[in-house]
Amino acid sequence: MSEKIAIRNEQAQSLVDTLTCSFVQTLKPYESARRLYSGGQDWLNANESPFSNPFELDDSSFNRYPSCQPDTVVERYADYAGLEKEQVLVSRGADEGIECLIRAFCEPGKDNIVICPPTYGMYAISAETFNVQVTKVPLLEGFALDADSIIAQCESPKLIFVCAPNNPTGTLVEREKLIQLLDAYQNKALVVVDEAYIEFAKEQSVSDLLNSYANLVILRTLSKGFALAGLRCGFTLAAPEIIQTLLKVIAPYPIPEPVAQVAAQALSKEGIERLNQQVDYLQSQKAVLVEQIAKLPQLNLVGDLYANFILMRATQKQALMDYLVSQGTLIRDQSKQLNLDDCLRISIGNEEQNKRLMSLINQFYENVGALT
User: Fold this and answer.
1) Residues 208 and 78 in one domain
2) Is the residue at 309 inside a domain?
3) Do 92 and 213 belong together in one domain?
4) What is the CATH number of the domain that holds 37?
5) Same domain, 325 and 251
6) Same structural domain for residues 284 and 330?
7) CA atoms of 345 and 348, how far apart (whole Å)
């Protein structure tokens, strides 16, 4: 490194130290699956679909700015969800929906949100990025929602995030508990139900409650069941008045034209039929994987199975994880999460990927693990 570059770097660091918001200085970037690991042949660490589906693009309008809320995408998703189009906001993944909710409804340095660990990490990270306090009310034994403690401990939150099915436990939320929260905070807070994995538990959606509870918000995505994680397309479902408020804080062009075209095709009649076929396939593959894991005394299933992943507690967790990575199979370590000691999460792959995974796990416990 030249002396000139070294001086520039030192000056830049000094400038950053001086100008960066105090609450940002202590933040750590979200450890996404891609940041933690790259390479390998079997990516079973990010709850992605193993399917890569074909789409067509019309590039004749790529020289123009796109619509903020593409009509076809909004209308087709509203139809898919059984709602009116005024109840739908499309965004850059459900993560942008989380950020818009926090930006629109939480005063920095004053308000707070509630999360229920172990759960998806972006609720807390998004709040901390906007200097919004995070109150944690852990799930009960068996990963049930502790609605009583939320109500008792959290007098005035602005947002209560509930992930259902929950990532990383694959568990549901009792409908009665959710209604208890909606009633308790009817004129006080928004209850945000993250249904990113709802395609794997379709009968468990609470979207039918949207017309009964003005304080219910639902997050959805095309990343999981629709096999479009790379598209970054999500949806917020809520009362029209909430949607209009979110439109005040969302970026002017959140959905690029190519994204809108692919999303519209995915939400067509043919796209929905393909979605259902692929979800059925993954559900069958999950059942096979569960049966094989249950045969190994070193592995114990944790949580439930209402998503496109399996959570398990593993003997020699770190050694097993390292061995799988060395063999090109990537899974996700969840042991840093509350009450998930020695837990690993496996995304459901295709038949070939799942067979390779189980072969490697068996090899580890029969050979490598036996020597450590």
Assistant:
1) yes
2) yes
3) yes
4) 3.90.1150.10
5) no
6) yes
7) 10
**Alpha-carbon distances, residue 70 vs 18, 75, 77, 85, 287 (angstroms):** 41, 9, 11, 11, 38
CB neighbours of residue 298 within 10 Å: 16
Q: Which among 175, 231, 188 is positioned nearest to 48, based on CA atoms? A: 231
Q: Rounded to an integer, what distance in angstroms lies between the CA atom of residue 46 and that of residue 120?
A: 12
> Can you give the residue range of the structural domain that contains 27?
23-49+272-366
Place of tokens 């005063």: 107
Mark residue 244 as left, alpha or beta (left: phi above 0; alpha: psi -120 to 50; beta: remaining): alpha
Within a domain: 340: yes
* Among the listed residues 322, 348, 363, the one whose alpha carbon sits nearest the alpha carbon of residue 42: 348
CATH number at residue 81: 3.40.640.10
pLDDT tens-digit map of 243-270: 999 999 999 999 999 999 999 999 999 9
Tell me: do 205 and 346 sit in the same domain. Answer: no
Q: Which of 267, 295, 322 is the last residue of a domain?
A: 267
The pTM is what?
0.95
The pLDDT of residue 12: 87
Domain count for the chain, please give it: 2
- 74-91 confidence digits (pLDDT tens): 999 999 999 999 999 999
Last residue of a domain, one of 245, 267, 289: 267
The Cα 262–Cα 150 span in angstroms is: 40
245 and 344 inside one domain: no
Residue 1 token pair: 């490194």
Question: 261 and 172 share a domain?
Answer: yes
Q: Are 189 and 215 in contact (CB under 8 A)?
A: yes
Residue 6: per-residue pLDDT: 86
What is the strand order of the sheet 343-347 is part of? 299-302, 309-314, 343-347, 332-333
